[in-house]
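In the design runs reported in the main text, the only information available to the sequence generator was the tokenized backbone. The following block is the verbatim input for one such run; it is reproduced so that readers can re-run the procedure and compare outputs position by position.
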């Protein structure tokens, strides 16, 4: 990461923004523009990259267990908050 205070502000803003959209992104509910923005941020942000990978793996594992069963509501949020409280 590089840049001045403005770049950092933008990064933090995207970081907050991305945090609430991972599950929608993985559900394919984000538009192309928002999806690209989230991917772009995840490339720059180690933490969001980890969250995204963890969610992907969780969903993939659930999909393998039963493709007919939906992931329980709130599961994605639980995974995210686990990762977030892990390390500041
Ligand atoms: Zn981030």
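Verbatim output:
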């Amino acid at each position: 990461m590089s840049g001045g205070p403005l770049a950092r502000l933008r990064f933090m803003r995207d970081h907050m923004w991305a945090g609430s959209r991972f599950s929608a992104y993985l559900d394919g509910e984000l538009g192309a523009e928002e999806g690209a923005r989230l991917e772009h941020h995840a490339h720059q942000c180690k933490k969001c990259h980890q969250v995204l990978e963890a969610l992907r793996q969780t969903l993939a594992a659930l999909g393998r267990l039963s493709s007919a069963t939906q992931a329980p509501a709130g599961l994605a949020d639980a995974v995210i908050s686990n990762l977030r409280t892990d390390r500041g």
